[in-house]
Every structure is written in C-alpha cells, then in structure tokens.
Amino acid sequence: MLTPAITPTPTSRASILARLGCSPRVFISFTCLLLVVIPLRHSVLAQQAEPPQEEVVRVNTDLLLFPVRIRDKRGLVATTLTEQDLTLKDKDHVTTGLYFYQGVDRVALVFALDQSGSLREIVSQQRGAALALFGRFSEKSRVAVIRFSETPSLVAPFGRDANTLREAFNFPAQANRHTAIFNAAAAAVDAFDSLPLVRSERRIVILISDGLDNVSTIKPTSIFETALKKRVSFYVIHLPLFEPRDGRLAVRSPAKGFRALAEKTGGKYFLVGDARSALAPQRNQDLTPIFQAIEDDIKSQYLLGFYLGDAANDGRKHRFSLSLPSGYEYQVGRLGYSRTQEFSVERPREALKVAK
Q1: 184 burial class (0-12, 13-18, 19+ CB within 10 angstroms)?
Q2: Cα–Cα distance between 146 and 158 in angstroms, integer?
C-alpha cells in the first residue's frame, strides 16, 4: 500500500473544481450531467451497505459524487468512519443530505493496452496479474479490454469470462505504427456508457503504455472533463522507453497530459523502473506489486456525495464545506490532504427541473 507521508495541510479555500482546472461553464456541465436516478427515500438508501441498482423513471434530486481517500494522523487508511462523523457547513442550505459509502467491492474496469512492438511482450505477461486483480472484487464487477495503436479497439466487452480476458492480453506486436493514447483513453471512458449507473460502483481505467503519443486528435483536457462527469478514474502504468541525455540514460518524456490522466481524475500514476534498471528489464516485467497497490488504493477509498436541492438552482455560486473529526484528513482528486475541504456549486436558473 502506498501511503503518503503525513504533512500538515491547511483548509482548502478554493473550490474543488476550480483546483481541478475546470471553468464555470465546465462546472455547470459537470453538475447537470451528474444526475442519479433514485427513489424519494434517498436518506434511507444513503445508509445502506450495498445500494441496489435502481430502475426508477422519476428524477427527484441531484447527487454529486466524489471518490475520496481518508487517513488518520499516523498516515494510515481510515476504515471506521460513518456519516455521523462528518460535519457539513452549508449556510445557503443548497444540500439536502449526504451520501457516504466506505470501501469498494464492485468495480467496472477497463484495461487499455498499448500494443506497440516495444510493449507487447511485457503486457502479454500480465494476464495472470490482471486476472488476479479483477478476481478479488465481487461477482457484480465487470471488466473490458481495449487495445490501441493508431486506433482503439474494444477486443473484450464488459463481462466476467476469464478466458476472454486472458486472450485479450495476448496479441501480436504492431511495430512501426503510430500511437494514439488519448484517443484510446477517450474510448475507454465512453465504453462505460453501455453500463447502467450504480452509485456504489467504481469506474476504473488501467492504462498501460510507454506514454508516447503522436497521432491523437482528442485533447487531454477534454478527457479530464468527460471522465469527471462520468465518474471515471485512471490508473496509469508507465512502461518507459529510455534515451541518452547529457551523457546518461534517461526516461523518455511521455506526452503532455499522460500522467495527468491519473492526477486529474482521482487515480494514481506508476512509473515502472528507471534508468538503472533499463539494461535489466526482466526485473520489471512483473506488474503484480502495482496491481496490488491499485487494488489497495481502490478498496481504501470512500464515495462522498452531496444531494442538492432546488436552492442550488438560483444561478448564484454557493460554497459549503465538509470536515472530519480531529485526527483525520481526506483528499479529493489531486487536492492535498486536509481535515476540511471546501466545495462549490454554481448552476443556472434554467437548470434541469425535477421530472414529475
């Protein structure tokens, strides 16, 4: 488990979406699209250990959801907090309730695999580790596989068949071709559109690539925004290429935005190896420790949500904050850890109304 060192973090004053680089227009879009279909008794459902998959036609409230990491003063993952431990300050009364769900047992997972010639062997060798990772989540979880070079291809749609997943990791090398990482990342986010939305399900993309992109037509910033709207987090595994630099062997710099796919969507970035191990790649071909770190990180997170009432639709910017008990602090997205985080919502007067 990779746990950050404890460092004092001041209370976050800027809004979360502003810190993520979203414009007000983007935030309006983010807010309006994160609609969750739920029955009227949302306060009861928010306390259930495993909310069922709803099939309700009527939309009666908005729910903004954020994956968060919580740790105690020793830097250890906190797993005992409940909704009663949270302190909400909302002077404008734009929220009507909280949603707080600990742990992740159910995932929808997409492996996005770079199939360039330099990576084929090492990626193919990860079949067992990938199956082991997926197998440790519940039977309600689903996995899909996308492979890409110049264009992405969904080679295994969402399912649970181990043989299909194993075969998807076995592919011929495609040397001397261009690579479109960001087009593939966008396709991975869009793949979740085929699934029903379940509040307690985490949507994860594990992207494995050397980080070199030379033909993508989709900009990284648009992927960040779409991933946030669809509640998709990227875990980026960087299998680097090396080049001589100033008389030394160094990691070849990845495309701009490659690492940010993880940093701006609530996931994590992993660099496999360094220049010292470049001449002994066999030491770095087992990604099992990284898959274990990803599993630990996913399972240690909470889902934090805010139900928004009609007061949020007056066209004004409203701020509210959420605090943890003394001795605990939490992280949202790429913000630093803090006991208190500040959120904001700004929606137009013509925001989507309740369906009657």
Answers
A1: buried
A2: 10
β-strand partners of 296: none
CATH architecture designation of domain 107-299:
3-Layer(aba) Sandwich (3.40)
Read off the DSSP letter of residue 202.
E
Question: Residues of 123-158 as b/e, b for ≥16 C-beta within 10 angstroms?
Answer: beebbebbbebbeebeeebbbbbbbbbeebebbbeb
- Structure token pair of residue 257: 């935005």
How far is the C-alpha of 346 from the C-alpha of 315, rounded, in Å? 6
Q: How do residues 238-282 score in pLDDT, each as one tens digit?
A: 998 887 877 777 888 999 999 999 999 989 999 987 756 655 555
Q: Would you list the domain boundaries of the chain?
A: 16-103+301-346, 107-299
Residue 160 contacts residue 154 (beta carbons within 8 Å)? no
Task: Report how far residue 165's alpha carbon sits from residue 143's, in angstroms, rounded to the nearest whole number.
Answer: 8
Helices (H) and strands (E) in the chain, counts: 10, 15
According to DSSP, the residues that pair with 317 across neighbouring strands are 346
Beta bridge partners of 66: 304
pLDDT, position 291: 92
